[in-house]
Design a protein that fits this description.
Elements: E1 24-25, E2 28-29, H1 31-43, H2 45-68, H3 73-91, H4 97-112, H5 118-136, H6 144-160
Antiparallel strand pairs: 1-2
């Protein structure tokens, strides 16, 4: 559209070169390519545990700074959000959906915080401790009964604090 003229829509035809980058058989996506990709992801499982343990150290460091420095607490909450968002995004890819669920709850909680309060720190700590339990106990998959109780406990706290 020309600037200032919104009466006529402009149609943009997307480029068609994507077809050359995706292997599609008559049955759909190339299953062999998909299996190779899954093998690559499975091979990164041990690396994921290293990455997420580093993320947990970093999130704990940001939390410790938030506790110690009330004047800059919002900045540390933003850092905790960034890290928990990464954790949330990677968990399911490596068969740790609890990391995705807990990370998502933490992100949603932090988004709801306008002015950080002392009580927010307790909720954040609960999430960080829960993430750490999932990894130290290697709670892959849904975590069974313990995983269910862990998530239910977090959700109960969030309900109690009105988030």
């Amino acid at each position: 559209m020309s600037q200032g003229d919104d009466s006529e829509p402009e149609f943009i035809t997307p480029p068609t070169n994507i077809k050359s980058k995706v292997s599609i058989t008559p049955d759909g996506v190339d299953l062999e390519a998909l299996e190779k990709a899954e093998q690559v992801i499975a091979g990164l499982q041990d690396s994921y545990l290293d990455w997420v343990e580093e993320d947990l150290r970093n999130i704990q460091a940001a939390y410790d700074k938030a506790v110690a420095d009330a004047a800059n607490r919002k900045a540390y909450f933003d850092e905790i959000f960034r890290i928990s968002h990464d954790v949330k995004g990677q968990g399911g890819s490596f068969d740790y959906p609890l990391m995705t669920i807990i990370g998502n709850h933490l992100c949603r909680f932090l988004e709801s915080v306008e002015t950080p309060k002392e009580s927010d720190l307790q909720v954040i700590k609960l999430h960080i401790d829960s993430l750490r339990v999932v990894i130290t106990q290697r709670m892959a998959g849904d975590g069974g009964a313990v995983g269910t109780k862990l998530v239910a406990g977090i959700e109960a706290v969030l309900t109690k604090v009105g988030k």
